Amino acid sequence: MSSLLSKQLSVYTLRNVLSLHVLVDYFGTRKLHQITNGTEVTATMFQATGSAPGASGYVNITDLNGGKVAFGAEDSNGKMDAVYVKSLVEIPYNISVLQISQPLNSAEAEAPTAAPTLNVTAILSKQGCKAFSDLLIASGAQTTFEENVDGGLTVFCPTDAVINGFMPKYKNLTAPQKVSLLLYHGIPIYQSLQMLKTSNGVVNTLATNGANKYDFTVQNAG
Fold this sequence. Notes:
Blueprint: H1 2-5, H2 11-19, H3 29-32, E1 39-43, H4 45-48, E2 58-63, E3 69-73, E4 82-91, E5 95-100, H5 120-126, H6 130-139, H7 142-147, E6 154-155, H8 160-170, H9 175-183, E7 186-187, H10 193-197, E8 201-204, E9 215-218
Antiparallel strand pairs: 1-2, 2-3, 3-4, 4-5, 6-7, 8-9
């Protein structure tokens, strides 16, 4: 995997590369060594999801002399990048996990892939946080939230009722104070509820590096 990681692909491109390594047909050890006419082209998840242009999401499997089995992406001009090493797990006709000598190379799978567009404020509005979303837009804090999406983002979203009750105090804050307060509700990493439950210690927020270095402490109460 080091050769793949050294390419420093984006997470979205890496997803395509990994999906090229998931075949949509079952291949156990026996089937690999009993391929009709010694070669077969099979579809991968890269092809099945519609992400692959043309037939670039297919993999060629070929039986070689000496009992070896080779694998190569269909768009690699006939180059067989990897050979079968051993079977790790086989549940016949359901799933098999096979070790190969190295990752498959595919120019199409490794092509730069744009990140999906996520509208943070639109998502918040649909989840009962429209008032908070409106404050992000009005203050300009929205930009900071959206810039952190690709690297991971957790938002603590006050409900509309909470925001409406707090508005008299909010209106008395200066513009920088409003931005800092709003940024305080975001963490620049992804944290699920389960991850938060198992965390202890100081957590940086989007406001930690601002004029007022706001962070908070997570304490596991057991």
